[in-house]
Amino acid sequence: MDISPDKALFYHLISRIIERIGDHAVRIAESAQPVMDVEIDKKILTELKKASTMSLEIVGQSLASFFNGEIKQANKNIESLSSVESICEEIHNMAFKQETMVAISVSYIAESIRRTGEYAADISENVINYLVQKEQTVRK
Fold it and tell me: What is the pTM of this model?
């Protein structure tokens, strides 16, 4: 395949992280199903959409930094995770004021959105590690 063992390991690590992101997409769908026909506070929905959009942007940018080998973008991706975490914490707090079924579903969704962002940051961390290791190998 004409790739080094280091690069093959790197691809393997990234593919495992992408698989975990997919697992959280399934959890979000499963958690949303019980509350599809339930009235949910518009503020919660707005914050869920905001956190989801931000988390998916980090995923996209992390994959772009992976394919383009951009350390600066990878660092920026990691730094942007704190915003997603803050919004998800706010969602958890708002969810506790809802009826039990809604609170549980919304909390699971927010947790999976947060984990998706964290996994995206893991991709960026792996990009940084790989590129630094690659640069050190070139210098030797």
Answer: 0.92
pLDDT value, residue 140: 65
Rounded to a whole number, what is the distance in angstroms from the first to the last CA of the chain? 25
Across the chain, which distance is largest between two alpha carbons, in Å? 62
List b or e across 103-127, with b for residues whose CB sees 16 or more CB atoms inside 10 angstroms.
Answer: bebbbbbbbbbbbbbbbbbbbbbbb
Instruction: Give the chain's domain count.
Output: 1
Distance of alpha carbon 110 from alpha carbon 52, whole angstroms: 8
Closest to 95 in 3D by CA, of 37, 35, 54, 53: 35
Can you give the CATH number for the domain in which 83 is found?
A: 1.20.58.220
